[in-house]
Amino acid sequence: MNIEDIFQKTIEEYDMIQNGDGIVVGVSGGPDSIALLHLLYRFGERYNLRLVCAHLNHRFRPGDAEKDARFVEDFCRERGIPCVAETVDVPRMAAREGLSPEQAGRRARYHLFNRVMREKGFNKIAVAHNLDDQVETVLMRLIRGSGVAGLGGIKPVRGSIIRPLLEVSRSLIEEYCAKNELGPVTDKTNFMPVYFRNRIRLELLPYLRDKYNNNIDRAILDMANILREEDDCLGRVAGEKFLELASGIGTDRLEFCIKDLSGLHTALRRRVLRKGVEHLLGDVDNLELTHIRQVCGLLEAGKTGKRLNLPRGLVAGVEYGRFFIARGEPEKGSIKGTYTLTVPGRTHIPEIGVAIDAFVVDVDTYLEERNEADDSLAFLDFEKVGRNLAVTGRKEGDRFLPLGMGGTKKLKDFFIDAKVPKGSRGLIPIVRNKMGIVWVAGYRIDERFKVSKDTGQVLRIELLHLSIGEE
Hints:
Elements: H1 3-13, E1 22-26, H2 31-47, E2 50-57, H3 64-79, E3 83-87, H4 90-97, H5 101-120, E4 124-126, H6 131-144, H7 148-151, E5 157-158, E6 161-162, H8 170-179, H9 196-211, H10 216-245, E7 253-257, H11 258-262, H12 266-281, H13 289-301, E8 307-309, E9 314-319, E10 322-327, E11 339-340, E12 345-349, E13 354-362, H14 363-369, E14 377-381, H15 382-385, E15 390-392, E16 399-400, E17 409-410, H16 411-417, E18 430-433, E19 436-440, E20 444-445, E21 457-465
Parallel strand pairs: 1-2, 1-4, 2-3, 4-6
Antiparallel strand pairs: 5-6, 7-10, 8-9, 9-10, 11-15, 12-13, 13-21, 14-21, 15-18, 16-17, 18-19, 19-20
Helix pairs in contact: 2-8, 4-5, 6-9, 6-10, 10-12, 12-13
């Protein structure tokens, strides 16, 4: 099949586009997004589409990024496609908000796409993930560890977001661009084995094709498709079971009979609990398998009065044969002691069921891990921060210099700005040295101790949420 046939089949199979849709097309200027825009432009009359191109200059590649923006604007102008091109200093945003460059870039892009969609009164966002991206994503998640939903890969449709090229290979896209003389730009960083995804594409997949299975891509895609269908089925069953068993739907507190939850298969119980969190918060961001395991441990213990503090201000507990999960301030728990941070090693903080791992690593290890890190992992200049570190709770009058902010800030004000529930603030470990706060665990390091070009050794510290009984 040619690219047009696959494109049409994908649109129809997943019901992506209806007559008269208004679509914001995310375009970087590379082959994938330029092919996507061109195909939607060609199919526009058939579906009576309204299109607008949205391009973000991330300021990752000064000079090249500006050329990319001009190329996208010219491409749209030649075809009469409206174009919104904006610039966001993503490296600065990443530093300011404590995100990896990839996380910050994605947040900035989708903020732009959603804003343009609202302003134009459109109803869809089209992005250019392709078949090769799907293979790489599934393999990445397999290596890192993931459940059925993660191994199902990228969804063709998620809310207002559609991915019409998800079943088109990168080679077909490049052929299409050449055939139609589209002249897309090339991001040289895609060919550098620095980022995790690049290493999978450039090193691991070629090795697997050569040594194990020359059809490995097809095998991975078939597996992902099966798992995505099964995940959808399990999700529907869990949704029905959640509605059947939960009381308090529509409030800030959900309750279940422990006997009902305990009678469910483990896999279904986990999903019902996730549905509960999603109902209270709107999503399950920052909810990890370890948190679900902690909740399951709480259920198995079944002891009245036991409580568990979860991310984003949720609290779960047991009361006389019933399990509850609620949104609001945790009722118990805070860090009362002072703990010497073991370097290298693990420091347990039993009051709140967490630990902090601290190890000295070289700069190469830091460069390899930093872009894949989440908020639970921080890197510090070991020479600047020193060995004499302690972990405490917050203290009256605490101030620090949050990374990227350019000035000191009261810890209390930082928590307010970060929307940390008041009752959760005493549960956040604070790593200190004799100069003051080094790391507000899970949130932000102090600017004074960041890794720089002059750094020799790097302190890698990670916040770990422990399962019940693991302390």
